[in-house]
Specification:
The structure holds two protein chains of two kinds. Chain A is globular. In chain A, the strands form two sheets. A six-stranded mixed β-sheet of chain A has the order 6-7-8-3-9-10, with helices on both faces. A four-stranded antiparallel β-sheet of chain A has the order 2-1-4-5, with helices on one face. Helix content of chain A is 36%, strand content 23%. Chain A is built from twelve helices and ten strands. In chain A, strand 1 and strand 2 form a beta hairpin. In chain B, 73% of the residues lie in helices and 3% in strands. Chain B is built from eleven helices and two strands. A two-stranded antiparallel ribbon of chain B has the order 1-2. In chain B, helix 2 crosses helix 3. Classes of the chains: A alpha/beta, B mainly alpha. Chains A and B meet through helix 2 and helix 3 of A and helix 6 and helix 7 of B.
Chain lengths: 264, 286
């Protein structure tokens, strides 16, 4: 089953066009890696899927529903969670609060959504409750299971999130995204700036995350890491997908060409 | 003993200034919005309470309970419909818009209620006092100060112990990442302003019962509120109470030396604190 797909996805920042018709898909249960150099459009793709950048409705579908036009909070409530590039922990919140906030805004919990839903029914506007239907945010992941996955976070749970080391912060960012029990987990550059041994620890959590029912998209600059964990790989360059396939079917030369845009 | 009395009166007056300032501090802390109409909103609240008192014949405390939800909804709509549109990287639009709002409120009130000064009557409570040893304190100033402490305790609990408080802090840190957590920043801001309007209603109750007011007294309350927030350090609610007390004490001590010095002494105290501690007494982190 196709869980998430983009179709002819274009994105622009003002006059600058960052994506030129990207077609990609994520099947249920899959882990997909997106690789590419700086400026290839990987992060823009993530920002489009999560609704930080708004697109034409039909360019992105989640479980068959057009979501390209939806705001970030509605997309999150549908079950698409994001580990943003640079971790982006909330400095005013402790580690535990950073985790809790990831799961506290579930569908139906938000009084504002209910009010908007009532208004929508009266005026015929899109109903946020309906748009996020089918995902209740309840599942395997709770504070306890996050602490089982990353035991160090339990010890540091009362520290400010930003007082932790880079690797520990990354664990908080992953835990925070998992707290909403997403069916799609997007990880943007989770190994950036971390030591290899720390990266290994973080990727060691991936099997458990997949087991919990989440399908995963990882954005990576580290090609070796991406090929090791992914079922399928997309390589991007200058806002376009230049290569896709299973890691076993792709040669180093293919990647070199797709990555740098030159024949090896 | 006269000095102990003077300082006590100053501390209690500081409670009123802290009430003026708490709503301002809350809104600034969450969305970096400097609301220049804050003083006028307090005066607006005082007129609202006055209407409820005179039309329904209720006691001012009960009237405030009726005015509070009206102010809450007004704050929510004001933020959602007007102020949210002004927020962004540029700090000028919110200043201009709230400055304009201040003028609109003042002139609207002038049109509706004339420039005559008004007062909300508390009956015998106005002159009631209790003796603390050799000094006596008015019941109303004590209630004002007690309310200020309660408001600050309540806001701190809201901020640090509840889900909406977490959403406030997260949105204040980073609205984009907060939206990835299912939070809608414009709604968080509207809720914050709505809550600030509850505090404004309490401030309005004591503003209106303590002394006369007219449509033009708002901007002076705004100045005291600003000074209290800045003395205390931006983002610290207890600091705001301390700031209010410093201004209150400076004013009563100044007035005791020479009645003409009352207002000036408060402003001088503010300048001295700025000189010694430019970031205020209790600045928040970073």
């Amino acid at each position: 089953m196709v869980l998430l797909e983009t179709h002819g996805l274009t994105a622009r920042y003002g006059d600058f066009q960052a994506l030129f018709g990207v077609d990609a898909r994520l099947e249920a249960g899959e882990t997909v890696a997106i690789i590419g150099a700086n400026g290839a459009g990987k992060t823009t793709l993530m920002r489009s899927i999560t609704g930080v950048l708004r697109n034409a409705a039909e360019q992105i579908r989640h479980k068959g529903v057009e979501i390209g036009h939806l705001p970030a909070d509605t997309i999150m409530k549908r079950g698409i969670a994001m580990v943003p590039e640079g971790r982006k922990l909330f400095p005013s919140l402790s580690v535990e609060e950073n985790l809790i906030i990831g799961g506290q805004n579930k569908r139906g919990r938000d009084l504002g959504d209910r009010i908007d839903s009532m208004i929508a029914r009266l005026t015929g506007a899109p109903d946020p409750m309906e748009l996020s239907a089918g995902h209740d945010g309840v599942g395997y992941w709770t504070l306890e299971t996050i602490y089982d996955l990353f035991p160090i976070l339990k010890e540091r749970r009362h520290s400010p999130g930003t007082a932790l080391s880079g690797g520990q912060q990354q664990m908080v960012a992953i835990g925070r995204a998992l707290m909403s029990n997403p069916d799609v987990l997007l990880c943007d550059e989770i190994s950036l700036g971390l030591a290899p041994v720390v990266i290994r620890d973080i990727y060691a959590a991936l099997p458990k995350i997949r087991e919990s029912g989440a399908s995963v998209i990882v954005v990576e600059q580290d090609i070796g890491q991406a090929m090791a964990v992914a079922d399928r790989v997309y390589c991007m360059m200058e806002g376009r997908v230049t290569l896709q396939g299973r890691p076993s079917d792709i040669s180093r030369d293919d990647i070199h060409a797709a990555y740098f845009g030159e024949a090896a | 003993m006269i000095w102990v009395d003077t300082i006590l009166q100053g501390v209690l007056l500081g409670g009123l200034y802290a009430l003026f300032a708490a709503g301002l501090s809350l809104v600034f802390g969450i969305m970096r919005l400097v609301n220049l109409a804050h003083g006028d909103l307090i005066v607006f609240g005082a007129y609202l309470i006055l209407i409820v008192v005179s039309v329904l014949g209720l006691h001012p405390f009960l009237a405030a309970f009726i005015a509070a939800p009206v102010m809450f909804v007004f704050g929510w709509v004001l933020q959602k419909a007007v102020l949210n549109r002004t927020l962004g990287d540029d700090i000028l639009p919110p200043l201009l818009v709230t400055f304009g709002l201040s003028i609109v409120i003042q002139n609207g009130l002038l049109e509706a209620f004339s420039a005559d000064s008004q007062r909300i009557s508390m009956g015998p409570l106005e002159t009631a006092s209790v003796s603390i040893g050799p000094i006596s304190a008015g019941v109303l100033p004590l209630l004002t100060f007690g309310s200020a402490v309660l408001v600050i305790v309540a806001l701190n609990r809201l901020f640090y112990r509840t889900a909406i408080g977490r959403a406030f802090r997260a949105t204040s840190d980073d609205p984009t990442t907060a939206s990835l957590m299912g939070i809608r920043p414009d709604r968080v801001f509207a809720t914050a302003t709505a809550i600030a309007m509850l505090v404004v209603t309490i401030a309005a109750l004591y503003l209106g019962t303590r002394a006369n007011f007219d449509p033009n007294v708002g901007p002076a309350r705004l100045i005291y509120a600003f000074e209290a927030v800045i003395i205390g350090g931006l983002g610290s609610l207890w600091g705001t109470l301390a700031g209010g007390i410093i201004i209150g004490v400076a004013q009563t001590v100044g007035a005791a030396i020479n009645p003409e010095w009352q207002i000036l002494a408060g402003h001088v105290a503010f300048l001295v604190v700025l000189l010694v501690r430019p970031r205020g007494l209790f600045p928040r982190g970073n």
